[in-house]
Amino acid sequence: MVNLKNISVSYQRGVNALKDVSLSIDKGEFVAIVGLSGSGKSTLLRSINYLTPPTNGEVCIDGVKLSSLSKRKLKNTRAKIGFIFQDYNLVDNSSVFNNVLLGRLAYTNTFSSLLGLFSSSDYNLAEKNICNVGLKDKMFQRVDRLSGGQKQRVSIARALTQNPNIILADEPVSSLDIATAESVMDYLLKFNHKRQITVIINLHDIRLAKKYASRIVGLKDGKIVFDDKPTKLTDSILNEVYY
Ligand SMILES: Nc1ncnc2c1ncn2[C@@H]1O[C@H](COP(=O)(O)OP(=O)(O)OP(=O)(O)O)[C@@H](O)[C@H]1O
User: Fold this and answer.
1) Mutate which of 19, 34, 37, 43 to test ligand 1's pocket (most atoms within 8 Å of Cβ)?
2) Stated pTM of the model
3) Rounded distance between C-alpha atoms, residue 116 and residue 98, angstroms
4) Taking Cα atoms as reference points, which of 50, 97, 34 lies closest to residue 233?
């Protein structure tokens, strides 16, 4: 369903962040991307939903080339791809409920979204997903009063409210302590299993990658140097990825 065909990304001043990367990810996989800082993990994730369109190569989602899509169709495709950021990307002075409702923005036209018009099914979906991440009692609390783990659960609920086929998560637990990080990862794994949502996640914690992912992709200098089951990621391969 996600197919990267020979993609390269070059930034200004000659930085080649990805070099001829090809990668196919099937529905329902839980893929962790690992590698040194600067190896291209964020760029890879952002190219999948065209936040950073590749300089060369093609990104295909369900067989459709993103480069061939009109603005409107690209918006529709992106609506089915949730994105979870390391720093949560929430509206701090707004409630949990309003933040989660923003997941429906991908489906509303500009006029409705400017007026904040949502349907009753949008409200119901937001409420259901807040309950699904265990935040029912915080529903109308401002998000800046929440802990880091709770904030990241709000971002998961917001992504779920898009009814996504894919969730992209860029270092979502790196600011959290180990126990909290695992509880956030548990939620991602739960929705991966229960809803068959494909999860593609950047992680610098190899232990978490091995514990949760069904497949690990190692990036080094913008190239894939490992792509296999977690059990195949031996210490000597790790040394190579992180050298
Ligand atoms: N907007 C940008 N403009 C120019 N160079 C960039 C930009 N974004 C990233 N880069 C460069 O591209 C390379 C890959 O960066 P990227 O953020 O994808 O790596 P990463 O593995 O996610 O690193 P980190 O774990 O530190 O976030 C790095 O050399 C980085 O400095």
Assistant:
1) 43
2) 0.95
3) 10
4) 34
Distance from the CA of 33 to the center of ligand 1, in angstroms?
A: 14
Can you say whether the dihedral through the CA atoms of 12, 13, 18, 20 is positive or negative? positive
Domain membership of residue 160 as a residue range: 28-52+78-241
Q: Report yes or no: 187 and 212 within 8 Å, Cβ to Cβ.
A: no
In a domain, 175, yes or no: yes
- Whether ipTM tops 0.90, in short, is yes
**47 in ligand 1 pocket by Cβ < 6 Å?**
no
Q: What is the pLDDT of residues 201-227, one digit of tens each?
A: 999 999 999 999 999 999 999 999 999
Count of structural domains, the chain: 1
CATH number of the CATH domain containing 173: 3.40.50.300
